[in-house]
Design goal:
Blueprint: H1 19-31, H2 34-48, E1 54-58, H3 64-70, E2 75-79, H4 83-92, E3 97-99, E4 112-118, H5 129-137, E5 140-151, H6 156-165, H7 171-181, E6 186-194, E7 197-200, H8 203-213, H9 217-221, H10 228-239, E8 246-249, E9 252-259
Parallel strand pairs: 1-2, 1-4, 2-3, 4-5
Antiparallel strand pairs: 5-9, 6-9, 7-8
Helix pairs in contact: 1-8, 8-10
Length: about 260
């Protein structure tokens, strides 16, 4: 029996302000070990910083990671254009200063010792990645770090996205651009990959999460969009375990960009 009532219907376009988007996000977070692995990584990184005055979270989403990392810092500043997500961040971090403008329209009067930009570059046009990253790095104090997170392009999730949309994201390409740029702000870069997975025992939940993950900006430009039946066949065929559970890799690339110390 199909998991969707109309397999010929196109994959849904999900609005972050709507319940369907939040439901997909919650199911993904409930089934992945992403937070269990990324939070200790960020904790160790924060502990190694020379100063922990300001934490800047750029595109904080629902605020769980913001809340976790903020406890290591004196102040927390959040940039989150989505009104719905801003409300979630303030519930998670009532003391945070929350700014509602997009990255390109934001002007900060503070410098962060740690700035985090997690899963935001999907929504930035690829030609603008370098300029956007350098803009974010300008908000980092000398000697501080900007941390960028995206899914690894070789994981199961990104192979699924490429299969249906043709979209390719790779932080390694951005790292190479940063090093070639010769910008004086860039002291050095470090790339790390965390091997995370998603797993659920409920096939319908797996399809909901797959549809959520497929909602990168390129999906909105596709005509016609892939059908929900096509997505169901892909997910069930490729990700079903012998136990009947569904599982796929969603490994994360983490690019650390350290801002050059102040000149003496």
């Amino acid at each position: 029996m199909p998991l969707v009532p109309d397999p010929s219907a196109p994959v849904r376009l999900l609005d972050p302000a709507e319940p369907e988007y939040r439901h997909g996000l919650e199911l993904f977070l409930a089934g992945t070990d992403e937070k269990a692995l990324t939070h200790p990584f960020l904790s160790d990184l924060a502990a190694a910083l020379p100063r922990r005055r300001v934490f800047l979270d750029i595109g904080a989403g629902e605020g769980r990671t913001t809340r976790y990392v903020s406890r290591f810092f004196e102040r927390t500043v959040v940039i989150e254009p989505s009104e719905d997500m801003r409300r979630a961040v303030l519930r998670a971090c009532p003391d945070a200063r929350v700014i509602g403008t997009p990255i390109g329209a934001t002007h900060l009067d503070v410098r962060a010792d740690l700035a985090l930009c997690s899963h935001v570059l999907y929504y930035v046009p690829r030609p603008d990645w370098l300029s956007t990253t350098l803009r974010m790095l300008s908000w980092v104090a000398p000697g501080g770090e900007l941390v960028l997170m995206l899914q690894n392009p070789g994981n199961d999730t990104m192979r699924m996205v490429r299969h249906f949309t043709g979209t390719h994201f790779d932080l390694a390409d951005l790292e190479a651009e940063l090093l070639r740029s010769g910008d004086d702000m860039v002291a050095d870069t470090v790339m790390t990959t965390l091997r995370t997975r998603f797993r659920t025992d409920v096939p319908a939940d797996a399809l909901t999460v797959a549809e959520f993950l497929l909602n990168d900006p390129s999906l909105r430009r596709m005509e016609p969009r892939p059908t929900r039946g096509d997505l169901e066949r892909y997910v069930v065929t490729r990700f079903t375990e012998p136990t009947g559970a569904l599982s796929w890799s969603c490994s994360h690339d983490i690019l650390r960009v350290r801002r050059a110390p102040a000149a003496r």
